[in-house]
Amino acid sequence: MMILPSVAEIGPLVAFAAILCALMLGAAMLLTLWRIARGPSLPDRVVGLDLVALLAVSVIGLLALVHHEAAFLDAALALALVAFLSTIALARYAVQRPRSGSRPERPEEEQP
Amino acid sequence: MSITLSDVVVAFLLLSGGFFSLVAALGVVRLPDVFIRMHASTKAGTLGGGLIMAAVAVELWDAGVTARVIAIIAFLLLTAPIAAHIIGRAAYRIGVPLWEASVVDEWRGREDPAPPEELDTGPQRPTQPLPPPASGSVQG
Prior knowledge:
The complex is a heterodimer.
Chain A: H1 12-38, H2 42-67, H3 72-96
Helix pairs in contact in A: 1-2, 2-3
Chain B: H1 5-30, H2 34-60, H3 63-93
């Protein structure tokens, strides 16, 4: 319980559930980052970034619960708003970028 | 320290929220193409985030906190389908391949219902053809 600074304010059952929830959120974040690194296309990465932003909102909510600090929720609300706008912008970029198509991400440039 | 009923409710909401977030991430990793992956990302992910936010509202039990939690959940529920719709349309338009086992593709062979020219791309360039090169120019 040393990783919870304000553990006196939450009960032991809630602290246990919070630790398990943090572990699950961390695993979910790592899996989603693997999908962003893997691709294979730009919309796959946009979907992954959308889920990463949603998981970050969940992590901020978990921090607000553990610390009994309501101010974190404002950050979560702002992050949800910015994530939506960035998803819209990336989708428009995927359509309108030059030479779009289902080609491989990195064509062979070194071919003489 | 005794365990109250609200502790049990908060623990249940936290564990189920974390579980659904993990299910969403597993779906994004394991499902076969981008259109199917969006199902996991939007539905299970939104449910997981909403359950964790509900746990915050029950644990802090304050009117201002509850109002913010309701705002966050409503915003997630409003924006997730819009974002998924726009990503899916963009992915289809730029030609991301469907899963081989897909059984229906209602846009195949049709005109694009919203071709990219109809998007708002700001002021357009004049479409006049370029003037022919002047005689005597260095054209190689």
